[in-house]
Design brief:
Blueprint lengths: L1 E6 L3 E6 L22 H10 L6 H15 L3 H14 L5 H12 L3 H14 L4 H13 L3 H14 L4 H13 L3 H14 L4 H13 L3 H14 L4 H13 L3 H14 L4 H13 L3 H14 L4 H13 L3 H14 L4 H13 L3 H13 L6 H6 L10
Antiparallel strand pairs: 1-2
Helix pairs in contact: 2-3, 3-4, 4-5, 4-6, 5-6, 6-7, 6-8, 7-8, 8-9, 9-10, 10-11, 11-12, 12-13, 13-14, 14-15, 15-16, 16-17, 16-18, 17-18, 18-19
């Protein structure tokens, strides 16, 4: 989601809500979906199972588990493949290979494995839960809900399935229901930080800011090195106008990981609101140094430079933002304002026209009163 702050009558100051790093789908900014069970735990399950597989298949299975522990999931899948070739009825392998496929973001392949595991044992709640995670990975949120309910039908105390059901509800914008499931999951397992993080996100959407801060605080107590919890708590504090508290949270996030660009970005936006514009520019500099394709950081640094009447520097930053994101309406609007400051009327009017065409109506006032062009005249 994106929250926007209006700057003067035609510029937009914005920042992105952070959804965390420890996700099964790190390239999609929408959910800190789950934490996979440890492969040591899976090994314990395996050793307790009654197996009659060949020693060769067992050897490849062991090698696959070892590679999973070392985060070599591609190598693990190859070993699990070989074990299945030698003994296709070696049923415990399918869930393990599916989990490795999840780590590789191969959700469809993981689904096939979990389906096979369920064929072998339809009474295993973990198989339904794992399949729910794979369905979440392909945005099948209703399928996720159904499988979580199946897992909970077999094991009503399956906290992870309950929380993941909440995440699917959250993705469907059913935030009140999501929060209900998070509360139940936390009651079942009150010491898992990620569940408090997820609960806090639902509370934020429901505008229960005090509750969100409480949940993030609990997550930090359980995981003191959680960048996500500090960053998101800082964002909630900004929403409640506790800017100093927000700044402290972003500084803590930077202390934990000084190479995470978003923390500098959030800190800079807060400094700007505190009228610490030079400090904000320095932190935008750092965010861009760490993430050179950070379009919104270029945009917001351009706004900070504009506010200091550094119009040339602002234009340069808006140019960079537009180069990275050609349909960035707010960047066109901001560049139009900076060009006006440079007495480039034609350039300013062209940028405001482009901003309106792209959907930003904040430039309409300046276009009509400075350029003497009515927005309705644009095609």
């Amino acid at each position: 989601m994106k929250t926007k702050f209006f700057f003067y009558s035609f510029l937009v100051f914005s920042f992105s809500f952070s959804f965390g790093q420890n996700t099964a789908k790190k390239n999609v900014k929408k959910s800190n979906i789950y934490k996979l069970p440890s492969y040591e735990a899976l090994w314990d399950i395996y050793t307790k199972a009654s197996l009659s597989d060949t020693s060769a298949a067992l050897n490849y299975f062991n090698k696959g588990l070892s590679k999973c522990v070392k985060d070599d999931y591609l190598g693990a899948v190859k070993d699990f493949d070989k074990a299945i070739e030698l003994d296709s009825c070696f049923k415990v392998i399918y869930n393990n290979r599916g989990l490795a496929q999840l780590e590789l973001k191969k959700y469809k392949e993981a689904l096939i494995d979990f389906n096979k595991a369920i064929e072998f044992d339809s009474a295993n709640p973990s198989s339904y839960y794992y399949r729910a995670l794979a369905k979440f990975g392909i945005n099948d949120f209703n399928g996720t809900i159904n499988d979580c309910k199946k897992a909970m039908g077999i094991n009503p105390k399956h906290a992870e399935a309950c929380a993941t059901l909440g995440q699917a509800k959250f993705q469907l914008n059913e935030n009140s229901e999501a929060l209900t499931y998070y509360k139940t999951a936390i009651q079942l397992k009150p010491n898992l930080a990620w569940m408090y993080n997820e609960s806090a996100r639902a509370r934020y959407k429901l505008k229960d800011y005090e509750g969100a801060i409480d949940d993030y605080t609990k997550a930090i107590e359980l995981e003191p090195q959680s960048i996500e919890a500090y960053s998101n708590r800082g964002i909630v504090k900004r929403t409640t106008k506790d800017l100093e508290g927000a700044l402290n949270d972003f500084n803590n996030a930077i202390t934990i990981n000084p190479f995470y660009a978003a923390s500098y970005f959030y800190k800079a936006t807060t400094e700007f609101q505190l009228n610490q514009k030079l400090e904000a520019i320095k932190d935008y500099d750092k965010a861009i140094e760490l993430k050179p394709d950070y379009a919104i950081a270029f945009h917001n640094r351009g706004l900070a430079k504009y506010s200091l009447r550094n119009y040339t520097g602002a234009v340069t930053d808006f140019d960079s933002a537009i180069l990275l994101k050609s349909d960035y309406a707010e960047a066109y609007s901001g560049r139009g304002a900076a060009k006006k400051g440079l007495q480039d009327k034609d350039g300013a009017c062209a940028d405001w026209q482009k901003a309106i065409i792209l959907g930003n109506q904040n430039a309409a006032y300046m276009l009509e009163n400075y350029c003497h062009v009515k927005p309705l005249e644009l095609k």
